[in-house]
Amino acid sequence: MTRTGTRLLVAGVGNIFLADDAFGPEVIRALDRRPLPPEVRVRDFGIRGMDLAYELLDGYDTVVLVDAAARGHRPGTLSLIEPDLPDGGTGAAPPETHGMDPAKVLALAAHLGDQPLPRVLVLACEPEVRPRGDEDIAPGISAPVRDAVERAVAALHTMVHVLLADPAATPPLSRPEESADPSAAGLPHPVGGGVEDR
To answer: Which residues contact 93 (CB under 8 A, 6 or more apart)?
Structure first.
């Protein structure tokens, strides 16, 4: 049962021109074929970090970011991460406004807003191919990450029903395993062991 008035955003992030970093946009594109319920806003933000930061301030109960994140697992492994959210930090310098590092986007949103951020979950996929720092284009995602796209779509269909009924619930992945190093994605430490892999 959906709780009346629950607002949920599913946001794909990543660069479609940089190999497995395209995972988030690929999942959003796959959701065109298997849409989520109409009360869920689904949007591909690509590398538009400022746009996502402002969207985070639009009154959502929960936001699910879909992204590639290197955490030391087998390529194609899906993980559910709940990062600690930054506070606005009055008097602090504004965070970097370019790019799509999820931790920096969360910090920017916290800096811009005067209300607490919504709950944020990250549905992350372990990449196999990561571009080198000097590469501008590395087209195409690897086979393990391509295989993970449909699993991510299925996971999102399960997750959003749980989150629409209770935005504070921790939706399971199909084969949860505790991660030994939940901070390896470059995100702040997760809250209360809220990390699962499959």
So the answer is: none
